[in-house]
Amino acid sequence: RGPARGGAARGRQRWRADGRALRKLPVHVGLVVTEEEPSYADMASLVVWCMAVGISYVSVYDHNGIFKRNNSRLMDEILKQQQELLGLDCSKYSVEFANHDKTGQVLNCQSTLKVLSPEDGKADIVKAAQNFCQLVAQQQRTHSDLDVNMLDNLLSSTHGFPDPDLVLKFGPVDSTLGFLPWHIRLTEIISLPSHLNISYEDFFSALHHYAACEQRWGK
């Protein structure tokens, strides 16, 4: 147990140093899996690495909604890996699910996690449109008031979350397949071949690439 604890401590120091060394660290990272067979263990590793380098907000998404339907299984794996990789010396942070059906406490360093499915993005835009139409009907708004800022204010899937700075997309599909379609218009998207058996080096290389990029503003 002693060597394992020592290895975890060295890992924590390395990850924190890596996060501080980046010229630009994303505030909110979306982890988007387009592969048909998602791996709970590999996704949990990615979530824990995000938290370990100091990323404040993490979203997990797969286009079949498997992670969201099985969020307890994913959370169990995240807890297990946090304890193995990070030890128990971090403060608590809240875990919020986008559909608000489950809230729990997990040990780590002030990060917040949402698990999303395609319904969150689609339903959110529909609800925002309905809310705007209701405001028009009540004569609180006119049709000409609808702009980017108005729609942003009406969207709620990432309420309390900033828009993602970075999406890491895993798999061969050249699309984010419905992941928060409105919120990622200014997001840097980096594609990786697969999340299966992904290494920390692959993950950190993507963060390094993001840090070297200029904001693309939707280009």
From TrEMBL:
Instruction: Give the location in the cell.
Output: Endoplasmic reticulum membrane
Q: Which cofactor does it need?
A: Mg(2+)
Q: Does the keyword Zinc apply?
A: no
Database matches in Pfam families: Prenyltransf (PF01255)
Return the EC number: 2.5.1.87
Q: In which pathway does it act?
A: Lipid metabolism; Protein modification; protein glycosylation
Q: Which GO terms describe its biological process?
A: angiogenesis; cell differentiation; lipid metabolic process; regulation of intracellular cholesterol transport
Q: How does it sit in the membrane?
A: Multi-pass membrane protein
Which terms in the GO cellular component ontology are assigned? dehydrodolichyl diphosphate synthase complex; endoplasmic reticulum membrane
Keywords, ordered alphabetically: Angiogenesis, Developmental protein, Differentiation, Endoplasmic reticulum, Glycoprotein, Lipid metabolism, Magnesium, Membrane, Receptor, Transferase, Transmembrane, Transmembrane helix
Q: In the record, what terms sit under GO molecular function?
A: ditrans,polycis-polyprenyl diphosphate synthase [(2E,6E)-farnesyl diphosphate specific] activity
Catalyzed chemical reaction(s): n isopentenyl diphosphate + (2E,6E)-farnesyl diphosphate = a di-trans,poly-cis-polyprenyl diphosphate + n diphosphate
Q: What does this protein do?
A: With DHDDS, forms the dehydrodolichyl diphosphate synthase (DDS) complex, an essential component of the dolichol monophosphate (Dol-P) biosynthetic machinery. Both subunits contribute to enzymatic activity, i.e. condensation of multiple copies of isopentenyl pyrophosphate (IPP) to farnesyl pyrophosphate (FPP) to produce dehydrodolichyl diphosphate (Dedol-PP), a precursor of dolichol phosphate which is utilized as a sugar carrier in protein glycosylation in the endoplasmic reticulum (ER). Synthesizes long-chain polyprenols, mostly of C95 and C100 chain length.
Q: Return the PANTHER family for the record.
A: DEHYDRODOLICHYL DIPHOSPHATE SYNTHASE COMPLEX SUBUNIT NUS1 (PTHR21528:SF0)
Q: Say which family it is in.
A: Belongs to the UPP synthase family.
Q: How does it assemble?
A: The active dehydrodolichyl diphosphate synthase complex is a heterotetramer composed of a dimer of heterodimer of DHDDS and NUS1. Interacts with NPC2.
State the name under which the record lists this protein.
Answer: Dehydrodolichyl diphosphate synthase complex subunit NUS1
What organism does the UniProt record list as the source?
Loxia curvirostra
- Which taxonomic lineage is given here? Eukaryota, Metazoa, Chordata, Craniata, Vertebrata
> Gene of origin?
Nus1
